């Protein structure tokens, strides 16, 4: 049955503009090594990642504040707290074993039901809570939070009228793509720190094509064939097996919470 539930976190025009700007700036913070050339790249290889580590949390906080200003009621906050806690508890069950990570499939399903704004916030809070739970707090955390937020945001932007088996197939396919996207983003975060240590690492000032080729080979060998594929398979199996039941539960919760357009 098609429902007409509104998003749990409303996105106004101004909020949408802030969100788009934040996504563009966030992606730029990931991909800066590919687009800075010559002396600028050589001069900022050491300090740029640390500058972004300091500014990215501020960017995320600005987006979260803007999203909350659009009207997040107590029911949405309660759902956010519950789902963040569940996601944080799921992460230690598989992390560290062949890329098996259970945190993302629930994020995809919740973003699908509660909308892109909720998915963005849940992505950030889930990774933050799980980092506190597992002792994973470090300079990588803001980048993990942003990458996860983009996964939740994308799930909320998928075509809304698809239902039934086609919806599960769509979400499963998205879960696979999201797994590889997350791994690609985190590889890009790591890559500049390894400048000059091997033949595949970042070369400050090298042409875009050269560094892009180095990065793609680097991420395929160190992440895509291992961790990312394990994460993709986990998302695929979890969404196919548990997706219908969890979607039903989440949509029932959304109806009771009365999130209306």
Automatic annotation (TrEMBL):
InterPro entries: ECF_substrate-spec-like, ECF_substrate-spec_UCP037395. The keyword Iron does not apply. Keywords: Membrane, Transmembrane, Transmembrane helix. The chain crosses the membrane at residues 16-36, 48-68, 102-128, 140-158, 170-194, 232-250. Pfam families: ECF-ribofla_trS. Coiled coil: none annotated. This is ECF transporter S component. It comes from Amycolatopsis rhabdoformis.
């Amino acid at each position: 049955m098609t429902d007409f539930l509104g998003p749990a976190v409303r996105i106004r025009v101004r909020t949408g503009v802030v969100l788009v700007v934040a996504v563009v700036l966030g992606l730029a913070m990931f991909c800066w090594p590919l687009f800075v050339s010559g002396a600028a790249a050589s001069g900022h290889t050491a300090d740029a990642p640390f500058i972004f580590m300091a500014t990215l949390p501020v960017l995320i906080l600005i987006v979260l504040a803007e999203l909350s200003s659009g009207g997040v009621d107590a029911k949405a906050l309660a759902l956010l707290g519950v789902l963040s806690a569940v996601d944080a508890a799921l992460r230690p069950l598989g992390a560290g074993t062949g890329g098996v990570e259970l945190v993302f499939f629930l994020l995809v399903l919740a973003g699908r039901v509660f909308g892109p704004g909720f998915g963005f916030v849940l992505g950030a809070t889930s990774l933050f809570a799980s980092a506190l739970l597992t002792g994973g707090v470090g300079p990588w955390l803001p980048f993990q939070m942003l990458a996860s937020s983009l996964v939740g945001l994308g799930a909320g932007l998928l075509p809304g009228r698809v239902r039934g088996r086609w919806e599960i197939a769509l979400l499963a396919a998205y879960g696979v793509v999201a797994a590889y996207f997350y791994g690609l983003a985190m590889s890009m975060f790591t890559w500049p720190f390894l400048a000059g240590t091997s033949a595949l690492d970042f070369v400050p000032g090298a042409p875009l094509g050269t560094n892009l080729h180095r990065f793609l080979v680097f991420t395929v060998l160190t992440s895509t064939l291992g961790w990312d594929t394990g994460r993709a398979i986990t998302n695929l199996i979890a969404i196919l097996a548990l997706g219908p039941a969890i979607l039903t539960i989440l949509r029932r919760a959304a109806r009771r919470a009365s999130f209306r357009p």
